[in-house]
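This part of the workshop introduces the protein records we will be handling. A record pairs a protein's sequence with a compact description of its fold. Backbone structure tokens are a discrete shorthand for how the chain folds in space. The question running through the whole workshop is how a given chain folds. The record below serves as our worked example for the rest of this section.
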Amino acid sequence: MAFLEDKRGAFFFSSKLVGIPALRITMIGAKSKQPRSLVLYGFSEHEQIALIASNFGQTNNPSWYYNLKANPKCQVEWKGRSAEYIAHEAAGEEYQKILGYGCVLLQRL
């Protein structure tokens, strides 16, 4: 699970289909050191964005998780604006809070 803190998003049609807000994130690849952009689903509380790196229940994390672990600085397009964020892995109470909110959000689908 990654948690992003705002240092200063965009609307995607697919978020309407899924029912979860989508964002475009650009990060540096852990191995390639090249920019990598993709659309992810997340949720926010104030200026913070949470992403759950579940990889659809697989045992390994998605590649973007490793990219953010290696290079936490990223650019995020979210709710019509672009901003720089710094990612960190949630732990303890923060992890439980994000996971709980994510479960509630998914139950609404």
Q: What stands out?
A: DSSP finds three helices and seven strands in the chain.
